[in-house]
Specification:
About 65% of the residues lie in helices and about 0% in strands. The chain has about 280 residues and is an all-alpha fold. A two-stranded antiparallel sheet has the order 1-2. A hairpin with a 3-residue loop joins strand 1 and strand 2. The N and C termini lie far apart (about 45 Å).
Length: about 280
């Protein structure tokens, strides 16, 4: 299951990510005051919401919403209008296939051999039989996709999520997921391969990939986000709730996936009948 919420994390590289975290750190001075103990219902709601930085988060949400309204949503609409659906699906599949090395690294770090085996087979099958990932042949052959990122990995390691954050441009997050996003950049081979002035073409490919990731992610949630913004009394609170529910569901699914063996890739002898 992919997130309903859109964020632009895939669009930014290490330098941009560091700059945005610095901006976010400066803005953390705006904190919500906890209700007094004499109002237990309000205090319980405050703790459940786990959003002590809500005043600052709402400012960043307003900025992000403005950027989305002026730039990202129109670009996604144009992308949907100009590019046929089948082509958009193929581009999405290629982008997902390129991201499989990072997914495999997280599968391994999580100690999930079956997931790591599925990811390996997906990369091999879709890169070859799927035409460099244009077609998702692996799913039809019994190797389904799954969610994996370093934020989920750290959750499995016992790292707490911390308070809710709405980071500038990056969108809804928390300290664990923000750190995980940075680790994901570091794990991505494209971050380090092809640097230097002699490989300007490769750099253009990397930036094109980031831009396509952002367009693809935003286009895929056009209808969902439009509906939320149209019907929700408080879109910020709705996005906060949906983000948390989705992340908790992803992590719970990961915890419960305890398949200990890799897929059976080769024919096995028939089982010996029990005596």
């Amino acid at each position: 299951m992919r997130p309903v919420l859109f964020h632009c994390r895939s669009f930014f590289g290490p330098a941009s990510f560091l700059a945005l975290l610095i901006v976010a750190g400066i803005g953390l001075a705006g904190c919500a005051t906890a209700p007094p103990a004499s109002d237990p219902d309000a205090l319980a709601d405050y703790r459940q919401t786990n959003d002590p930085l809500e005043p600052t988060n709402r400012v960043f949400y307003a900025i992000n919403n403005g950027l989305d309204t002026v730039i990202l949503r129109p670009a996604a609409l144009a992308y949907r209008y100009v590019v046929p659906g089948a082509v958009r699906t193929g581009l999405h599949n290629v982008l997902a296939n390129i991201g499989l090395p990072v997914q495999f690294a997280n599968d391994a770090l999580e100690g999930k051999p079956r997931r790591a085996g599925d990811t390996t087979m997906r990369f091999l099958i879709n890169t070859t039989a799927g035409g460099l990932g244009i077609f998702d042949v692996a799913t039809k052959w019994g190797y389904p996709d799954h969610d994996a990122d370093f934020g989920m990995t750290m959750a499995l390691w016992g790292v707490p999520e911390g308070p809710f954050l709405f980071l500038p441009v990056l969108g809804p997050s928390d300290p664990r997921d923000a750190a995980g996003f940075g680790a994901g950049i570091a794990l991505d081979p494209f971050t380090w391969v092809g640097t230097g002035p002699a490989l300007a073409g490769w750099s253009a490919f990397k930036y094109s990939r980031q831009a396509l990731n952002a367009l693809d992610a935003r286009e895929r949630v056009l209808d969902s986000l439009d509906q939320i913004k149209k019907t929700a009394l408080d879109p910020y609170a709705t996005f906060r709730s949906l983000y948390r529910q989705h992340r908790h569901a992803q992590i719970e699914e990961l915890r419960n996936d305890n398949r200990a063996t890799i897929p059976v890739w080769f024919p096995q002898p028939a089982d010996t009948p029990a005596k």
